[in-house]
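Checklist before submission:
- one chain only
- standard amino acids only
- sequence pasted in full

Submission:
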Amino acid sequence: MRIYAFADEASPAIDSQIAAMRRNGLNGLEIRGVDGENVSAISLEKAKEVRRKLDDAGLCTWSIGSPIGKIDIETGDFAAHLEQLRHTLEVAQVLGAKRLRMFSFYIPVGKDPADYRNRVIDQVGEMLRVGEGSGVLFCHENEKGIYGDIASRCLDLHKAFPQMRGVFDPANYVQCGQETWSAWEELNPYIDYLHIKDALADGSVVPAGKGLGNVKRILDAYRAQGGEDVTVEPHLQVFEGLKDLEQDGNTSHVGGYRYPSSDAAFDAACNALKEFL
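Returned file contents:
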């Protein structure tokens, strides 16, 4: 398999992200945060600098972990968002990324997502039109609070836009109360790659295999149908004072799954995946 990561969870600094990826034997980056800036906001010159560093380290940019589509469907400035998308696609070209992770708009709390379907379809369609000819594949991620939060609405989007693929995030489904295996069975023909992330019923994120996400079962099914690419997204809790509280220095299980540093949390997430492989 080819394994990538949101390495900004190890460090905001790109040099430290590269060190974390190399330490864990990963193939590259789903790029999100770069030296304190979101990837959608960095300059093209900064993107060239990052590309040089990744090339020198033998790493690639697998996907742009963009925030595109993460605005309120009612109040978001969609015209400005399209301009942000155009710039993000230019950044993708510089970085050599062939994929862009996207979303399908936040629905106002307490409102029925069905009431916003037509508007979501219109705006997702406009985003996809901006991407035409870019060579970048748009991949929709299920996310709590957006239109495509559960499998049925993700399926609705994929049927409306066959050119758009999916990112399957088990933890996000758990956080929405969606049983993940049934979601996989419904959506797997549309899935391009997986986010390796797991969660408990209360929504807290835990290492892959320690929650309710059926991560190993889904990963095995994905590989059986030819899937080869996954992104580790740790989202594990960091408690900087943990080491001082644990006399024997074994900090990996104190307070549930909490870690003494971002690097330790990142390594734990990578190791959890490797146990499956």
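Reviewer check: The longest helix spans residues 78-95.
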